[in-house]
Amino acid sequence: MTDHAGGLPGYAERFTEPEGYLDFARYGPPSRDVLEATAAALATSAEADHTTVDELMRAEPRARAAAGRLAGRDAAHVALLPNASTGLFHAAFGLAGGAVLVPAADFPANHYPWRRSAALGRAVPRWLDAAPTPDAVRAALSDEVVAVSVSAVDFRTGYRADLAGLREVIGDRLLIVDAMQAFGVAELPWQAADVVVAGGQKWLRASWATGFAALSDRALERLEPTLSGWTGVTDVGVFDDVEHPPAPGALRWSITNLSPVTAAAFAVALELVESSGVAAIEAHVARRVDELIEAVREAGGEVLSPVAPGERAGIVSFAVPGTDPARIAKALHEHGVTPSVRADSVRLSAHASTTRGAVERVRAALGSLR
């Protein structure tokens, strides 16, 4: 374990992941706060009485409020979800028709909802064979396009989408954003989007089965609550054997009650991000990314991520010419570094608890390849 000297003060000491952990774009090890909140909620549930369930359920509005504050929305425009994919399916099945512009190289979580929507005769995907820049999106628009669905940060390279630019280009169309690789680690204009979905297991460090969707009024007006369940309607506690109308606001996306244990963990994780500030987290990550890029270049590596700070987030993807990524990974593992390994590249992702020691481990590992 590391003492996190060199991490973001007031934040880093709440985590205990090994010094060389650089795989936050895959999974962000949760804080001690999250572990304690999870244990406390489970312990309470183990001694349940007539007040327990209602008490535990109070974690959900707390988490919704925190997510809303970070997304620039009020709690009425936020719904908790078990993951980001559920939110994307809500959006895809909520569109009655038209075409949705989707980057062909995006993460599959932003592909399958639209494929399934098309199979049901609803919205159909139109694939964008380019990075989703405002210019590329403008060139691909047509009257049939009713929405654009993009990742805020590309999972391969860390490319940061220009959400404000996309909003300006698409006009009144819906902008649907998978914020999985960005939320909590990159300050972006989330209010430019009509739908923002994110899971908590990566940069928010809340572990699995946590997530949310933040919806604009335009999204609430245009997206049918096709996947709404018994908790997504008015008068949830009235069991009168008739269909109730959808709940007001984002709660119409609720399918059933979620775990109050994971809601408690999610609330704590979101509030920890708030207390440190996304700007401070982002600034620390940017410094570490700069150092990682320098270490890769010193070893003769080719950086595949954008190098301009305004164009990237916390991800550094690279290759070393003439060297198999599996061999690079082996060297990194031998020096206590945890990366993600692809067939053609290696991905490193730093967070606010990442220290200079992690960078030195990468430098030593890549140096050993010589």
Quick rundown:
The chain is α/β, with parallel strands linked by helices and 370 residues long. It is built from 12 helices and 11 strands.
Helix residue percentage: 25-40%
N-C termini distance: 28 Å
What structural class is derived from the secondary structure elements? Answer: alpha/beta
- How much of the sequence lies in strands comes to 5-15%
Mean pLDDT: 96
Shape: globular
Poorly predicted regions are: none
Question: Secondary-structure element order, as H and E?
Answer: HHHEHEHEHEHEEEHHHEEHEEH
Q: Major β-sheet, in short?
A: 7 strands, mixed
Q: Give the number of DSSP strands.
A: 11
> With helices defined by DSSP (H or I, 4 residues minimum), what is the helix count?
12
Question: Rg from C-alpha positions?
Answer: 21 Å
Cross-sheet strand order for the largest sheet: 1-7-6-5-4-2-3
3D architecture notes:
The chain is of the alpha/beta class and 370 residues long. Helix content is 36%, strand content 13%. It has twelve helices and eleven strands. The chain has a seven-stranded mixed β-sheet, sandwiched between helices. The protein has a four-stranded antiparallel β-sheet with strand order 8-9-11-10, with helices on one face. Helix 7 (163-170) links the parallel strand 4 and strand 5. Helix 6 (134-140) runs parallel beside helix 7 (163-170). The radius of gyration is 21 Å and the shape is globular. The two termini are 28 Å apart. The mean pLDDT is 96.
